[in-house]
Amino acid sequence: MAYPTSIFITGANRCIGLGLVKEFLKVSSVKIVIAAARIPENAKDLIAINGSRLKIVKMDVTCDDSIKDAYIETFLPLLSKASSHCTGNHLGVDRAAIINMSSCSASIMLNEEGSGVVGSLAYKISKSALNQLGKTMAVDLVSEKVLIAQFHPGWVITDMGTMGGRVAEITVEESVCSLVESMSKLRERHNGGYFDRRLEVMPN
């Protein structure tokens, strides 16, 4: 297994994002976890972690200026530095990687319910688009030695996972434990791919 020394997590104030922060902080070789939240001062569960390896930054994914500021000030320098300081030509999370949180809803082949009981057409479209973006980035950034992968985290017990009275299958803790382990196994052959939380290939 190979882990990065620094990690940037968006949506880190709750649910899967918060779970990933906690799980990565369990890995001793991870030196810093940068957790992005829209309103950091309101992210009480995130603030409560309070460790020297955790840095909380402000980023609103619906605001271009906020994304740009966080990208320029925090994300880009780390990504470029990580890739350039790693020896060899391999791709892996120990070098530089962008991991997108996708969903089984992104899969056209698995869509047997149409829009779904909670009217999730826009969500399905957005996740399919995310997978296409990830694959495109994987091709575009291969010369920069940046690995890209998309993960379906499972049907997780979150606000969204239980929307409409649905009964989700796994806890956040179960999801992120598998995700972090799978991320540590990513290699060049996984670049641009779409996987479940156990690193099994998902149908597009």
Question: What would your notes on this structure say?
Answer:
This protein has 5 helices and 6 strands, in the order E-H-E-H-E-H-E-H-E-H-E. The protein has helices spanning 15-25, 44-47, 64-85, 121-140, 172-183; strands at 6-9, 32-37, 54-58, 97-101, 147-152, 194-196. The radius of gyration is 17 Å and the shape is globular. Helix 1 crosses helix 5. It starts with 5 loop residues before the first strand and ends in an 8-residue tail after the last strand. Helices cover 34% and strands 14% of the residues. The mean pLDDT is 88. The chain has a 3-stranded parallel sheet with strand order 1-2-3, sandwiched between helices. The chain has a 3-stranded parallel sheet with strand order 4-5-6, covered by helices on one side. By secondary structure, the protein is of the alpha/beta class. The chain has 2 domains: 1-85, Rossmann fold (3-Layer(aba) Sandwich), CATH 3.40.50.720; 91-203, 3-Layer(aba) Sandwich (Rossmann fold).
Summarize the structure.
InterPro entries: Fungal_SecMetab_SDRs (IPR051468), NAD(P)-bd_dom_sf (IPR036291), SDR_fam (IPR002347). The protein has helices spanning 15-25, 44-47, 64-85, 121-140, 172-183; strands at 6-9, 32-37, 54-58, 97-101, 147-152, 194-196.
